[in-house]
């Protein structure tokens, strides 16, 4: 891993119960990987599958100031592009 990849990552300590740890460790072994990689890849997959429209809808609700940057015509075009 190069330093650019390292700089673009965030570290977070999580606590999981023993049963979850055991089950996920078995899943990781079955896939030929380790627990850390399994968790990281699972979280990345979840994030990658999140629909752009869901993100935009959330931002509109939680960060309405972002709507002021676009004109109504630009906002409509962007929403049409997202399919919302």
Write the layout of secondary structure elements.
Layout (H helix, E strand, L loop, with lengths): L2 H5 L10 H13 L4 H15 L2 H11 L9 H11 L2
Helix pairs in contact: 2-3
What does this molecule look like?
The protein has 84 residues and is mostly helical. It folds into two domains: 11-49, no CATH class; 51-84, no CATH class. The chain is elongated and about 50 Å long. It starts with a helix and ends with a helix. 65% of the residues lie in helices and 0% in strands. It contains five helices and no strands. The mean pLDDT is 85.
**How far is the N terminus from the C terminus?**
38 Å
Portion in strands = under 5%
Q: Give the low-pLDDT segments.
A: none
Helix content: 55-70%
Number of domains: 2
Main attributes?
84 residues; mainly alpha; 2 domains; 0% strand; elongated
Compose a concise summary of this entry.
The protein has 84 residues and is mainly alpha-helical. Helices cover 65% and strands 0% of the residues.
